[in-house]
Write a structure and sequence with these properties.
- Helix content is 46%, strand content 16%.
- It has a domain of 154 residues: P-loop containing nucleotide triphosphate hydrolases (Rossmann fold), CATH 3.40.50.300.
- It has a 5-stranded parallel β-sheet, sandwiched between helices. Strands 6-5-7 form a 3-stranded antiparallel β-sheet.
- It is an alpha/beta fold.
- It binds adenosine-5'-diphosphate and zinc ion.
Length: 222
């Protein structure tokens, strides 16, 4: 099953995708994580992509689309894939349909996460990620802290704040781009009848973990 995580920054897409990956074995394909790996390894793609990422802008489609296409063609993605961070524009969504059609498959489920705007900025500012590229666990200083401050529970590596999470300007820029370019995808997938919208919010005591369990039982488990 090809599944897409949709929702603004800080809504918990990565958390839900990570849990569903464990339950299904389908890879979590996070374009942001792939870019960050390239940046850490200083590949040509990484150097180019970082020009956009550091300021909170979208990486051009000429770079992003072939990268996703190649990843979807890998052996481990044949059974299913959990796309996290792609597509982010209508053009990318249309391109994805073409790529999947070539592989005789299509988007079957879109999980759209929503979080009240007053919670979003705090969630992003409090986000910490494992610096170990092979682990990439994410934490939140208040909602989901690590057992030892600054150290990953899973692998013992240092926790860091993403460069684009530490600066209010780049956070706002990403949220603005989300509103303008990514939100229209909700209608696009609504018209296809494949979307489910789920609220993630501390106020209603419903976090990514709860949503992942529910979605799995309702839409994925056979
Ligand atoms: P966030 O959702 O918090 O912005 P991501 O890890 O998903 O974080 O993405 C980090 C950055 O990587 C984005 O701000 C953007 O620059 C780039 N990026 C990720 N996915 C895409 C995409 N589908 N198209 C273009 N750029 C992308
Ligand atoms: Zn770790």
């Amino acid at each position: 099953m090809v599944l897409i995580m949709l929702g603004a920054q800080g809504t918990g897409k990565g958390t839900v995708a990570g849990i569903l990956n464990k339950k299904t074995g389908w890879p979590q394909i996070s374009t942001g994580d792939i870019f960050r790996k390239h940046i850490a390894e200083k590949t040509e793609l990484g150097v180019e992509a970082n020009k956009y990422i550091a300021s909170g802008n979208l990486v051009p489609d000429e770079i992003t689309i072939p990268m996703v296409k190649a990843r979807l063609e890998e052996e481990d993605a044949k059974e299913g894939a959990i796309l996290d961070g792609f597509p982010r524009t209508l053009a990318q969504a249309q391109k994805l349909d073409e790529i999947l059609a070539e592989q005789n498959r299509k988007v079957e489920l879109v999980i759209n996460l929503t979080t009240p705007s007053e919670e979003i900025i705090t969630r992003i500012l409090n986000r910490r990620v494992c610096s170990n590229q092979a682990c990439k666990a994410t934490y939140n200083l208040t909602m989901h802290p690590s057992k030892v401050e600054g150290i990953c529970d899973k692998c013992g590596s240092k926790l860091v704040q993403r460069e684009d999470d530490s600066n209010a300007e780049s956070i706002q820029r990403r949220l603005d781009i989300y509103e303008e370019k990514t939100k229209p995808l909700v209608d696009f997938y609504n018209n296809k009848g494949v979307i489910t919208t789920q609220e993630v919010s501390e106020k209603i005591n419903r976090l990514g973990q709860d949503v992942a369990e529910e979605i799995y039982e309702k839409y994925i488990k056979k």
